[in-house]
């Protein structure tokens, strides 16, 4: 199987590295100093579950060099999907599977704007990892897991084959009965902490210490649940309670990647998180005042990052 990892950040670097280590024909798309370092020295992954180093079959910034992929794993940010989709079109065949692992609730819909349903899978991942330096990925938290499935939730032959591939690579994986619900369960958690974290510019423990801020956090999540239910996703009270149990257990100093992007003046996933919540809610006639406040306060900062 030819596997293309598009984007060798914390997510693509870790999971792509594991697949390459297992002997699969892995091509990687990277750029700049990261690309040059991997070309010269291979990809180094430092992990709490054991470190390793691999040399992928191909590391390049030129899609024309890539063998026709059977599977594409997207390791870019959610806001990059529309542009990446256009770049990928020439190498995608009718049999190619595209697996998005980004945060966000509408990555499948973005891909369907450019590809037929047969090409697109639903997916997400759980991992805390990042590029420590060019050519080096650092995994610091969570048992890395890929959750994936057909967008119609059928247990297809190719989904079964994909599970075998992940198993062989030593990647914990899960094919749920309802991939949309799993996507929204993670979205509930990550969107809840990202926006308010970006606005307050403090770690999750500092937000927990404030009754006022913690109440805003809860209201943010309740609005997300309201939107999910209006869209037919069975996000329930128990899922909200579980998300907040995870929030309560986050160690001191924890911040979300979108928050870190906002604080560093980089383009962020704000539009795909609070922006998506606000705009989808408006279409459905739902009030989301807390998410709207967070979004409107952060939007000038995100716009500035995109133009500077």
UniProtKB/TrEMBL annotation:
Pfam families, per the entry: ApbA, ApbA_C
Enzyme class at the top of the EC tree: oxidoreductase
Domain of life: Bacteria
TM regions (residue ranges): none
Reactions catalysed: (R)-pantoate + NADP(+) = 2-dehydropantoate + NADPH + H(+)
EC number per UniProt: 1.1.1.169
Keyword Oxidoreductase: yes
Ketopantoate reductase N-terminal domain ranges (all copies): 3-152
Domain Ketopantoate reductase C-terminal: 178-300
Keyword Oxidoreductase found: yes
Pathway(s) it belongs to: Cofactor biosynthesis; (R)-pantothenate biosynthesis; (R)-pantoate from 3-methyl-2-oxobutanoate: step 2/2
UniProt keywords, alphabetically: NADP, Oxidoreductase, Pantothenate biosynthesis
Listed InterPro entries: 6-PGluconate_DH-like_C_sf (IPR008927), 6PGD_dom2 (IPR013328), ApbA (IPR003710), KPA_reductase (IPR013752), KPR-Related (IPR051402), KPR_N (IPR013332), NAD(P)-bd_dom_sf (IPR036291)
Role noted for this protein: Catalyzes the NADPH-dependent reduction of ketopantoate into pantoic acid.
Protein family per UniProt: Belongs to the ketopantoate reductase family.
Name listed for the protein in its UniProt record: 2-dehydropantoate 2-reductase
Organism this protein belongs to: Salegentibacter maritimus
């Amino acid at each position: 199987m030819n596997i293309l990892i598009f984007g060798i950040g914390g997510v693509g670097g870790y999971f792509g590295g594991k697949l390459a280590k297992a002997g699969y024909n892995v091509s990687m798309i990277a750029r700049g100093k990261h690309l040059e370092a991997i070309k010269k020295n291979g990809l180094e992954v430092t992990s709490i579950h054991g470190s390793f180093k691999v040399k992928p079959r191909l590391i390049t910034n030129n899609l024309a060099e890539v063998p026709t992929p059977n599977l594409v794993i997207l390791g870019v940010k959610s806001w990059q999907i529309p542009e990446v989709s256009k770049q990928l079109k020439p190498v995608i065949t009718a049999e190619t599977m595209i697996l998005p692992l980004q945060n966000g609730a509408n990555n499948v819909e973005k891909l369907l704007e450019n590809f037929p349903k047969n090409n697109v899978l639903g997916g997400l991942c759980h991992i805390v990892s990042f590029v420590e330096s060019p050519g080096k990925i650092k995994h610091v938290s969570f048992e890395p897991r890929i959750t994936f499935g057909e967008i119609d939730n059928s247990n297809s032959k190719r989904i079964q084959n994909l599970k075998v591939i992940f198993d062989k690579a030593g990647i914990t994986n899960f094919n749920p009965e309802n991939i949309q619900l799993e996507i929204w369960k993670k979205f509930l958690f990550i969107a809840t902490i990202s926006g308010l974290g970006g606005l307050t510019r403090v770690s999750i423990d500092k937000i927990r210490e404030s009754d006022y801020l913690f109440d805003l956090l809860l209201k943010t999540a309740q609005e997300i649940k309201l939107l999910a239910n209006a869209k037919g996703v069975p996000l329930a009270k128990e899922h909200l309670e579980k998300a907040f149990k995870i929030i309560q257990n986050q160690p001191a100093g924890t911040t979300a990647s979108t928050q870190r992007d906002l604080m560093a003046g980089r383009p962020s996933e704000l539009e795909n998180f609070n922006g998506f919540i606000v705009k989808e809610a408006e279409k459905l006639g739902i009030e989301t005042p807390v998410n709207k406040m967070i979004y409107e306060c952060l939007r000038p900062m995100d716009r500035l990052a995109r133009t500077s």
